[in-house]
DNA sequence: TATTGTTATACTCTATAACTATA
DNA sequence: TATAGTTATAGAGTATAACAATA
């Protein structure tokens, strides 16, 4: 194995472990909160996009449609999103964030990310800059 | 909210989404494979550390003892780790990787990380350097 | 009485397969 | 017949609470 391939294997291994561990910590923050991490993620996505069909939302979040069905149902039960009919295609639906959902996003994001926020404040400016760039790169990887 | 706090909130939000998405992709690679991502992670940890008690292993992986009990049981069933008695404390056990486990680590790591490896190869040298630094920072955050 | 580990139980997240309704 | 979405089912991953064995 060449040095470059070896370094990449090490990078893959390190990145995998780091991501698995941080994901675990982030999910653990959900205890006692109102909505789950997946629900918050989908809600944020809808908030940015405006309104999407369930299929579009599943594609953007990178999950299969049945997984998104459950997330949407939970958000709808909580009154945070609403469905309306698609104007031209009776099979599809349009999902959009309600006023209550918009209010909740701000509350939840700050509540759920309090732990992470605190960790980030403790870093140096340079370290935060690295994470900012890394987040963009990782997002690009995971979207492919 | 100050500009710095706002930027940190954005960073936390971006980092959270990136980590959730990459974690999902990494777990999805498990399909068709032999052991799960959690099992591989514990196995790699034991491989590096030599031999650990279940409690030590749980602490290093950042999970609760009952979660590690299940992971160890699966690895033991597969013959990849073995237990032996603790020399001085009858309550504890020593878990270590078997020869079969050592062989499997190399196979699995390369098989499981093939997807991630390919993504990393497609990046620039600078992007890989950012991820390398980010992995260290994230691991430090998640360990606290 | 304190510590280590396991068992019992439950919930989140996600997938695939099968089904329904509409195009 | 093809597409969008849901329902049914299953498995991974993890936690807390209760228990057993040993210190």
Name a few traits of the molecule.
homodimer, 144 residues, 70% helix, Arc Repressor Mutant, subunit A, DNA-binding, 3 strands, mainly alpha, disordered N terminus, 3-stranded antiparallel beta sheet
Q: Can you characterise this structure?
A:
The structure is a homodimer of 144-residue chains. Helix content of chain A is 70%, strand content 8%. With 144 residues, chain A is mainly alpha-helical. In chain A, helix 2 packs across helix 4 (65-77) and helix 2 (37-49) crosses helix 5. Chain A has a three-stranded antiparallel beta sheet. The model of chain A is unreliable at 1-6 (pLDDT under 50). Chain A has one domain: Arc Repressor Mutant, subunit A (Orthogonal Bundle), CATH 1.10.10. At the A-B interface, helix 1, helix 2, helix 6 and helix 7 of A face helix 1, helix 2, helix 6 and helix 7 of B. Chain A binds a DNA duplex (23 and 23 nucleotides) through helix 1 and helix 4.
Task: Give the gist of this structure.
The first copy, chain A, has one domain (34-143): Orthogonal Bundle (Arc Repressor Mutant, subunit A), CATH 1.10.10.10. Chain A has a 3-stranded antiparallel β-sheet with strand order 1-3-2.
**Using DSSP, what is the number of strands of chain A?**
3
Order of helix and strand elements from N to C terminus of chain A: HHEHHEEHHH
- Largest sheet of chain A, described in full? 3 strands, antiparallel
Distance N terminus to C terminus of chain A?
Answer: 26 Å
Strand percentage of chain A: 5-15%
Runs of chain A in which pLDDT lies below 50 for 5 or more consecutive residues are 1-6
Q: What general outline of chain A do the C-alpha atoms trace?
A: globular
Integer count of domains of chain A:
1
Supply Rg of chain A.
18 Å
Q: Overall mean pLDDT score of chain A?
A: 86
| Helix/sheet category of chain A | mainly alpha
Largest interface: A-B, 50 and 50 residues
Helical stretch tally of chain A:
7
Helix content of chain A: over 70%
Identify the quaternary structure here. Answer: homodimer
- Which second-level CATH architecture of chain A applies? Orthogonal Bundle
Which CATH class of chain A is shown? Mainly Alpha
């Amino acid at each position: 194995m060449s040095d470059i391939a070896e370094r990449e294997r090490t990078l893959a291994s390190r990145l995998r472990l780091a991501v698995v561990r941080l994901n675990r910590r982030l999910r653990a923050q959900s205890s006692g909160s109102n909505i789950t991490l997946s629900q918050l993620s989908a809600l944020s996505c809808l908030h940015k996009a405006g309104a999407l069909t369930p299929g579009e939302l599943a594609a953007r979040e990178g999950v299969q449609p049945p997984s998104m069905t459950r997330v949407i149902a939970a958000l709808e039960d909580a009154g945070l999103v609403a469905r309306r009919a698609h104007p031209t295609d009776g099979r599809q639906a349009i999902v959009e964030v309600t006023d209550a959902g918009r209010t909740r996003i701000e509350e939840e994001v700050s509540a759920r990310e309090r732990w992470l926020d605190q960790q980030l404040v403790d870093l140096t400016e340079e370290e935060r800059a690295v994470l900012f760039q890394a987040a963009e790169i990782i997002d690009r990887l995971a979207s492919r």
